Amino acid sequence: MDPATGKEAFVVAEPGGFLEGLADRHVLETAAVLVAVVGAVLEEGRACDVELAAFVRPLHAALEECVGVMAEWG
Question: Superkingdom of this entry's organism (predicted)?
Answer without folding.
Answer: Bacteria
